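Ferritin (Geotalea daltonii), 165 aa
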Amino acid sequence: MLNKKMYAALNKHMNIELYSAYLYLSMSSHANSIGLKGTANWFMVQYQEEMVHFMKFYNYINSQGASIGLSAMSAPPGQYKSLLDMFEQTLKHEQFITRCINDLTDLALKEKDHASHIFLQWFVTEQIEEEENDRDLIGKLRLIGDNGHGLLMLDGEMAARIFVP
Ligand code: OFO
């Protein structure tokens, strides 16, 4: 059973995971609207992954006998200056998520909630990959700069990403 503090923190973060899904869904559509279909695919896969993250929290809270509370969702930005801007915003968001996961893990230890502490380990590991992916793409985009050919090549690479549930 989750204590009050742990429940509130996990439930709040569950809603943040849903916001992550919203954010990447919006980025996917923006990429599509500027003709970058591969990038649109990359963000669509990212959206699907975020829904998995959301459902992990949803199922965990339910498995502890509590019912989840969905909160109102703020709208993500719909316009971006460039592809680099999108990925810089993505990395910034993922760094925020990493801080949230670290805070949740600290709380689980403080509350001696071993089940939640184990549950959160998956996310601690996942965040390493989340940030790494974004940093890799930002590095490539900085090298590419304004080179249209390079941008299209990278877009083609991003078309190959597939969702692995
Ligand atoms: Fe992008 O890792 Fe969840 O939010």
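The pocket of hydroxy diiron-OXO moiety is lined by residues 17, 20, 50, 53, 94, 97, 130 (CB under 6 Å). The chain has one domain: 4-70+82-159. ok done for today
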